[in-house]
Amino acid sequence: MAGRFAPRSAPRAAVPRQTATPVPAALTRDWTPPGPLDLRLVLGPLRRGPADPTFRMSADGSVRRASRTPAGPGTLHVVARDGRIEAAAWGPGASWLLDQLPVLLGAADDPDAFTPRHRLLATTHHRRPGLRLLRTGLVLESLIPSVLEQKVTTDEAYRAWRLLVRKYGEPAPGPQEYGLYVMPDARTWSLIPSWEWHRAGVDSKRSATILRAVRVARRMEEAAAMELTDAMTRLQVIPGIGPWTAAETLQRANGAADAVTVGDLHLPGIVGHALAGNRNADDEEMLALLAPYEGQRHRATRLILLSGNTPPRHAPRMTRGDIARL
């Protein structure tokens, strides 16, 4: 039609360029340990499976871990170079993590307090001079995954930890490429619905134990400053936390050199085989064999496990369950 013109299209709005969120500068610290230190040996017990969202170990031996500290979430990156430890940390908990770095890496541990009474332990102790017992000073971050490991295969426990931390935790501070997550705080753990525990493969007994523990989180965390006997008693006040779970927790949270794990499916046979040639040893015999190492029984079991002198399996592994399919 004459006089009619096609309307001009409206100008397109400018599309903002996507820019990466800048990462705040890290706090840093260097520390020289008092002797040989192997980061893999020292920090390895904190990793809950190869896909632990709170922990990464690189091919160069450096370690990255995310923690919920008393000051808030934090990410720590540590690497050993020329006999020194170089550390960087991000987030509200950065200063706390760096302040605690020497204790985390075993500065309060005394490997010389261990006197080998068996040739196997003497050899392993000599070959592993970089082994020190870590101390995180944080109870819940070791207690919760230890509860998840009760009476199930390690694969099941690792899967549950991974799923729950990724869904209910938060991305860790620091470089995004680290891909780490900080575990949920106590209140968030307490609000996880029953069906989400079920989907993660966690039965009602273990989830109820965790819920009871996080409701008294402050009292649980106090155990990190206690002597071993008092700390064991404090944790076992919670129904569902027995000697096995308490020992596994305090080995990490308190650096407890004498927190021997009883009630384990495999450890008595491993210790019995290594020290007496008896792969069928029970807890009672294990404790008798470890009696000469009173005060250092956890270190003794670590050295036995590191020796590689473990009995060949003659029975099927624990059957894996999957309650999420029920």
Distance between the termini: 71 Å
Q: What order do the helices and strands follow?
A: EHEEEEHHHHHEEHHHHHHHHH
Give the overall average pLDDT.
92
Query: What would you call the shape?
Result: globular
Arrangement of strands in the largest sheet: 1-5-4-3-2
Unreliable spans: 1-16
Classification by helices and strands: alpha+beta
Helix count equals 15
Q: Report the count of strand segments.
A: 7
- Quaternary assembly: single chain
Which helices and strands occur, and which strands form pairs?
Layout (H helix, E strand, L loop, with lengths): L26 E5 L7 H5 L11 E3 L5 E7 L2 E10 L2 E7 L3 H6 L1 H4 L14 H9 L12 H9 L5 H15 L1 E2 L9 E2 L3 H5 L3 H6 L4 H12 L1 H5 L6 H8 L7 H11 L13 H10 L6 H8 L6 H11 L19
Antiparallel strand pairs: 1-5, 2-3, 3-4, 4-5, 6-7
Helix pairs in contact: 4-15, 5-9, 5-12, 11-12, 13-14
Please tag this protein with its features.
alpha+beta, 11% strand, 326 residues, 15 helices, disordered N terminus, 38% helix, globular, 5-stranded antiparallel β-sheet
